[in-house]
Amino acid sequence: MIDAYSTTAYMFLSMLLLMATGLPIVYCLGAVGSLAAIFLWGFEALDIVYFATVDLMNNLILSAVPLFIFMGFVLHESKIGRDLFDSVHLCSGRLRGALGIGTMLLCALMAAMLGVSSATVLSMGVIAVPAMLQKKYNKSLAVGIVQAGGALGFLIPPSMMMVMYAFISGVSVGKLFAGGIVPGILLSLIYILYIVILAWLKPDYAPAMETEEPVCTKIKAKALLELALPLTLIFSILGTIFMGLASPTEAAAIGAAGSLVCAAIKKRLNLEMLKASCRQTFAICGFAAYLIIAALIFSKVYTGLGATTMIKSLVLGLDPNPIVVMALIQISFFILGMFMDDIAILFMCMPIYIPIIIGLGFDPVWFGILFVVNMQMAYITPPYGLNLFYMRAVAPKEVTLKDIYWGAVPFIFLQGLLLILLILFPQLVLWLPDLIFG
Q1: Which of 139, 209, 222, 355 has the highest CB neighbour number within 10 Å of its CB?
Q2: Residue 328 is assigned to a structural domain of this protein
């Protein structure tokens, strides 16, 4: 009989070999999980496919995901991001790097509205990158700002990855949303500080808009009124959760309805916009559903072997330094994130890691935010960071793939800095959830 350690090696090596052939990750996970179930328990074990599908369909927490995605694409298709960027552009002023700073702030705001990294990158890639290039910004810096700013959607709630982590860990979605606010604000400030310092050290990277005509205070005030709609929408989602007025799923429904109201107020609510939003929502949700089912099959087989308990006992039996274990886990996330989808990593690794970190006395809310930060890094890490490909699809012709890759590098280091700070100072994550939920 094959023990759990041997089966672990066989399953993970088989999956990596299949991935090396170029087969999509959903087929790799599903095939390895199903074949392992047949080998271990016979063809009757294929019932696991049915139970994995039922688990997905019956889970109320995950029903928030398509609602948040729909909300994000309605706001994207109704061009509300373009209105916000025009306002930022008007208010940027003549300071060096001001347009880059404004773009980063807008990306953070859109992350809180959209919850979908792709929508932010596509919107700002079309709008903000050409504007920065027109103002003679360095190409790598211009695309790097949008790529990193778009990835803030992982960390600033509402975050799809936090909802999925809550599904697999049993942690409160509200606590995760609260835990992401301070790190999200802190990372945005770190980005802005980097842009300010770079603009000061290298003025040609982010020049001041010296040729712009001065904009009167009245026009600036009118431009700032454009923030009213998105801020109201954000409050309607997060405020109702934090005040206990709605569950995350109910808040997602409020957000989806609110996005339609925003589009209607802007007089952009039409059938074509709804078709485009629904089509993109169905595409992302369909992909995510198949990936989650395949990952659940893989993890259920693995857990059914008792391998999770064995690995937990092995690690805790060594009496390791908890911080060293946490650092090794984060390194494993970073390496996997360079080659694998974030959803696959979540469903593969969390059944193994969560019992270990709880056994070591760590808070699963804190661990969840660390994971989200790491997956945020994965989205801009070459060679397979998805935001890099989104940017490649919409960037102006003069922007090369080299510019896109090099533009991401400094922001990866800044994300790594935040990850280290959160590991050393857990209260940066836990203070707000403890304050709100006790």
Answers
A1: 139
A2: yes
**Long-range contacts from 402-408, C-beta under 8 angstroms, 24+ separation:** 403/139, 403/140, 403/143, 404/140, 404/143, 404/147, 406/140, 406/144, 407/139, 407/140, 407/141, 407/142, 407/143, 407/144, 407/145, 407/147, 408/144, 408/147, 408/148, 408/380, 408/381, 408/382
Q: State how many domains the chain has.
A: 1
> Alpha helices of 170-321 — where are they, by DSSP H?
173-201, 217-224, 228-234, 240-242, 248-265, 271-304, 307-317
pLDDT, tens digit, 9 for 90 and up, residues 38-97 = 887 777 777 777 777 777 777 777 778 888 888 878 887 887 777 777 777 666 666 777
Cα distances from 408 to residues 121, 152, 402, in angstroms, run 13, 13, 10
Determine, yes or no, domain membership for 185: yes
**Upstream peptide bond of 130 is cis (omega within 30 degrees of 0):** no
Tell me the residue range of the domain where 66 lies. Answer: 59-437
**Rounded CA gap, 49 and 54, in Å?**
9
pLDDT digits (tens, 9 = 90+) for 224-279: 666 777 778 888 888 888 888 888 888 888 988 988 998 898 888 889 989 988 99
For the chain, the straight-line distance linking the first and the last C-alpha, in angstroms and rounded, comes to: 48
Spatial separation of the C-alpha atoms in residues 195 and 43, rounded to whole Å: 58
The verdict on residue 216 lying in a domain is yes
Which alpha helices (DSSP H) does 305-363 contain, by range? 307-317, 322-337, 342-359
Residue 5 lies in a domain: no
Helix (H) or strand (E) holding 368: helix 364-378
Query: What is the pTM for the complete model shown?
Result: 0.83
* Residue 145 CB burial class (10 angstroms; 0-12, 13-18, ≥19): buried
Whether the CB-CB separation of 120 and 114 falls below 8 Å is answered with yes
